[in-house]
Amino acid sequence: MSDLDEVLEDCFRREWPVLVGAVARIVGDLHDAEEIVQDVLVSALARWPFSGVPDTPGAWLMTAARNRARNHLRDVSRASARLHAAAVLTRDAEAEEEAAAEPTNGPAPGRWPTTGSGSCSSAATPSCRSRHRPP
User: Fold this and answer.
1) Does some domain include residue 20?
2) What span, in angstroms and rounded, lies between the C-alpha atoms of 128 and 45?
3) CATH number, residue 67
4) What is the spatial distance between Cα 58 and Cα 12, in angstroms, rounded to a whole number?
5) Which of 5, 35, 102, 109 has its CA 20 to 30 A from that of 54?
6) Can you give the pTM of this predicted structure?
C-alpha cells in the first residue's frame, strides 16, 4: 500500500463522520451529505497524486465539502425557482386557454342589453338607456 493510499484511508476513517455531520447541517439531508462527502473524497483521490497531499488533509476535505454543500444548496434553489416559474407559466397558459374556450355570457360588444319588456324597440334609444344599463 502506498503512502497516498494510507493517508486517504486514514482521512476517510477519521474525517468521514465529521465531514458528513458538518455537511448534513448545511444541506439538511443525510443522504445528500453522504453523496457530497463521497464526491469530495473522490476529488481528493484524483487530485492528490498530482498536486501532493496537503499539509492538513482534514482541513482540505472540510473546505471542499463545505464548498460543495453550498454549491448543492444553490443548485437546488435555482432548480426550485425554475420549477416554480414553469408552474406559474403553465397555470397562466391553462387559464387563458380555458377563458378563450368558454362562451361569453352577455350581449355582443357594442350593444345594449334588452330585457324584452317595455315599450321601446331598441335599447339604444335615449329614452330607454335609463332602464337598460350594460352589465
Assistant:
1) yes
2) 89
3) 1.10.1740
4) 9
5) 35
6) 0.59
